[in-house]
Amino acid sequence: MTFRQFLTSRLAVRLYVIASGGLLLLILLDVFIMPWIVHARSEIGVPNLVGMNRAKAVETLELRGLTPMVTDTAPSSTVKPGRILYQNPVPGSVVREQRNVYLTVSGGEQKVAVPNLRGRSLRDAKITLEQLELQLGIVTYTSSELPAETVTTQGVPAGKKVTHSQRIDVSVSSGPELSQIDVPAVVNLSLDEAQKKLAAAGLRIGSITSKASRALVPNTVIGQSAAAGDKVDAHSPIDVTISH
């Protein structure tokens, strides 16, 4: 059978009829049936769900014949965790029954881990906190074996998560504590003896002045700037007056 003969055969006619019927059915679906199905659904106003508890928001949509779709979680400093942050369509929109309503839930305010500041300089600690959007709080100074201007302790432990702009108090080293020494009595000693006695106590001779005295041997200490028994810092100079 040639192609021309096939086109005029009964089989070809049947194929024409089937194809025409299928095309007619598609036209009917597109023009009449589908629009009728869509418009047969009720129109519903989308409620305001922002700030509502997630479970309550889902229930509210289902009761109205809408389909809740919780799609994302986002940080927020104003909406409590677990409550609706955004919705789409927006409140007040008019949609058809069973329409999807997309919900974004609040994850609460974003937090950051506090860094370990011990051993850092005060300047470095301040810069580190600012880079994490934290703030340097109250700074107090205490004596420490760490170098001066070095952080010794912090008010919020390292690793703890806090909200942005949190103030972190720190204690800073003022340097090693100088021990206090009792000043020994050096009056009536020779200058050499006085110098040795002060050195043995962890002190040193300061300025030396002389004053005439007929009763004492020259270079005898007749006065000292700090009285015997006074407490002074280690290595402090003790001024003396000697006879001549």
Summarize this structure as a short list of keywords or feature phrases.
244 residues; alpha/beta; three-stranded mixed beta sheet; 15 strands; 27% helix; rod-shaped
List the helices and strands and how they pair.
Elements: H1 3-7, H2 10-40, E1 43-45, H3 54-63, E2 67-74, E3 84-88, E4 94-96, E5 100-106, E6 111-113, H4 122-131, E7 135-142, E8 151-154, E9 161-163, E10 167-173, E11 180-182, H5 191-200, E12 204-211, E13 221-224, E14 231-233, E15 237-243
Parallel strand pairs: 2-5, 7-10, 12-15
Antiparallel strand pairs: 1-4, 3-5, 6-9, 8-10, 11-14, 13-15
Q: H/E order of the elements?
A: HHEHEEEEEHEEEEEHEEEE
Assess the beta-strand content as a share of residues: 25-35%
Helix content: 25-40%
Shape: rod-shaped
Kindly name the structural category.
alpha/beta
Task: Please list the strands of the largest sheet in the order they lie side by side.
Answer: 2-5-3
Arithmetic mean of pLDDT: 87
Low-pLDDT ranges = none
Radius of gyration: 46 Å
What does this entry look like structurally?
- The protein has 244 residues and is α/β, with parallel strands linked by helices.
- The chain has 5 helices and 15 strands.
- It has helices at residues 3-7, 10-40, 54-63, 122-131, 191-200, and strands at 43-45, 67-74, 84-88, 94-96, 100-106, 111-113, 135-142, 151-154, 161-163, 167-173, 180-182, 204-211, 221-224, 231-233, 237-243.
- Strands 2-5-3 form a 3-stranded mixed β-sheet, with helices on one face. A 3-stranded mixed β-sheet has the order 7-10-8, covered by helices on one side. Strands 12-15-13 form a 3-stranded mixed β-sheet, with helices on one face.
- The longest helix is centred in the first third of the chain and has 31 residues, at 10-40.
- It is rod-shaped and about 155 Å long.
- The model has no long low-confidence stretch (mean pLDDT 87).
